[in-house]
Amino acid sequence: LSLSLCTTFAFAQDKPVGNDIPPSFTPPTRAPYKPFVEEADYTRRIAMIPMRDGTKLYTVIMIPKGAKNAPIVLTRTCYNAAARASANRETAGNALATAMPAARPGREAAAKAPSPHLIDELGLPDEVFVKAGYIRIYQDVRGKYGSEGVYLMTPPPVGPYNPTGADDTTDAYDTIDWLVKNTPESNGRVGMIGSSYEGYTVVMALLNPHPALKAAIPESPMVDGWKGDDWFHYGAFRERMLDYFVGQTAARGAGPRVPHKHHDDYANFLEAGSAGDFARSLGEDQLPYWKTVEAHPAYDGFWQSQALDKLVSAKPLTVPTMWLQGLWDQEDMWGANHAYKLWEAKDTHNDMNFLVMGPWFHSQINREGHTMGPFIWDGDTTEYVREDIFMPFFNQYLVDGAPKANTPPVLIYNTGENHWDKLQKWPLSCDKNCGATSKPLYLRAEGKLSYDAPTAGEAKFSEYVSEPANPVPFLPRTGDTGTWQTWLVQDQRFVDNRPDVLTYTSEVLTAPTRVSGVPEVNLYASTSGTDSDWIVKLIDVYPDDATGPAAMAGYELPISLDIFRGRYRKSFEHPEAAKPNAPELIKYDLPNVNHIFQPGHRIMVQVQSTLFPLYDRNPQTFVPNIFDAKAGDYKKATQHIYQTPGTASFINLPIVP
Ligand code: PG9
Prior knowledge:
Bound molecules: D-phenylglycine
Largest sheet: 10 strands, mixed
Organism: Granulicella tundricola (strain ATCC BAA-1859 / DSM 23138 / MP5ACTX9)
Oligomer: single chain
InterPro entries: AB_hydrolase_fold, CocE/Ser_esterase, Galactose-bd-like_sf, Xaa-Pro-like_dom, Xaa-Pro_dipept_C, Xaa-Pro_dipeptidyl-ppase/CocE
GO molecular function: dipeptidyl-peptidase activity
Radius of gyration: 27 Å
Shape: globular
Protein name: Hydrolase CocE/NonD family protein
């Protein structure tokens, strides 16, 4: 048939049809085009700014042409200031850093020559500042890229764990002091912004802010590396961060990526053994920061001395601060909302301390925000925040004579109804004094979830066997790291039939259930071992309805989940072995939610003891330091989740009636 069609076609064209691709093609040679000469609409000034100890920090100052009385926006980075202020991103920092903002469309890595246009030299999130005529400044933190001095990873404030005499508080202070005295085009007002590590540098600046620092936006800042930002979550170590240690500390510039044996880290980490074994296989016994972390697995003075939510909220609230993070922030889930919460007590007029939570993955604020995993939001949610929330806020404090912004104290995306909620306070529901009161949702026998507490006579517990040799994967094992950013919205059907994952499900909802606040885990759990991890996921189960959109039919959407390392159930600082087979309370907060479970949906809770290879495996035998666990320490354990009066397990749900 196809032969006869071709023949017909050839006749219709009245000439034979050959191959559009000739057997060979020789491109003509010619002289290169003359470069396009255009006067730049900005000046790039490079300064080595002296700090109080004489160390000089590499700073790129991008000044719009003709700027007068212009405000300054400063970002202090460990990811290469020169690259941040250049459309040529080939030289960009640590390839593993997900905080790096997107280039403006059309100015990706291909842009080798500097553009004459400031808007094209800077990344997508800087577009708003360029349009508003701001001076944009990037600076390398001490010891990285162009800056002099010694590098410490997210250095604790000067003190017993940072004897260098300098930190990112003093360096921000000295930098701002120099900038306002040496940037004649500026009006002497400075705002700071930055995400993740760069968010940490914003928070550090707030510990002793220079008087010229007038407003701050810490985006997904790394605030407490042990409780929930980057390195650990409630003491469980994020083994995947070991690559970051190399990328960040093996060199002053971007460190190498040490090749792994397999593409699939599930296989790599299992074969290596403990996280310590894997670190050593990457050569990390040469890296001081790895040795520091290895020596501080518990929440001791090292971590307490750098818990920035505690430190910043102990200070007077003098700089208007907008804390921002993603609702599915897979890296820094702790910092922004905890710092906001603690500092809020000092915000007497509700006009200095702000919270923004969008439907985003980590640092998505620096990228486009129409979608997140399978979801399509109402418009570009990140552009909206950059243009309509950040700019009026910064303008109010940084631009001479600008009007007062109408900034909502809390702006949080409603992930169940697909719109922004502008609120006076957060959370809307909690244990007490929030307006609405949280309600216990009990884990009941036979995989049921109910607002009714269990009664005597029901099966005492549900059981599963956790086998460290066959841990539960956190993502389907594709060996593809491309799904890292969206793993927190991964459909959980891929594990809910595993025998080592307990699944509890509610009846089909007949009315909407709104949750706005922090779900609190209360598990009465026992292990046959002497240590264990406990992972709890709160899930919205979409109806498996053939009439709805196929992509979401039956979808098990995690709206909040986290891991807790059982040895820290009584004290974060002093771990304790579990008594085998004795139920004990495991109590912890899950990340914030602002969601509506719709009629027709069901609420689900899953419980499991491994989340691999994101987190290192708990050997399930109590050892002094899990980083050094030996092969023989990893043991299968029988886990019980209790569901009887007196030891009733539940999730305290922040329900808003
Ligand atoms: N989440 C990254 C990070 C911050 C601080 C320490 C280590 C890693 C980041 O995106 O910058």
